[in-house]
Structure to design on (85 residues):
């Protein structure tokens, strides 16, 4: 049976689980996240649904929701990202 494109992309995303924060960059406009392999090869470009920011006890944070990938957090004004648990 043939898999739908969406199912194939979902399965590929699961295989390409991003473990390190170096694997995510934003496009120049800040509208899409570029998800890359550990070697820096682009895997997917996904739209960013929203950004949120805050401060807790003097520690600033920024989060983004990437459509189809989940939520990510940055503690350095978006320079690096890590997956939120």
């Amino acid at each position: 049976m043939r898999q739908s494109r969406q199912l194939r992309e979902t399965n590929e995303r699961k295989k390409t689980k991003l473990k390190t924060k170096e694997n995510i960059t934003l496009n120049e406009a800040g509208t899409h996240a570029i998800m890359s392999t550990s070697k820096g090869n682009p895997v997917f470009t996904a739209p960013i649904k929203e950004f949120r920011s805050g401060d807790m006890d003097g520690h600033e944070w920024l989060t983004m929701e990437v459509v189809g990938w989940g939520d990510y957090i940055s503690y350095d004004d978006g320079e690096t990202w890590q997956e939120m648990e």
Summary: The longest helix spans residues 5-15. The longest strand covers residues 42-56. Residues 5-83 form one domain.
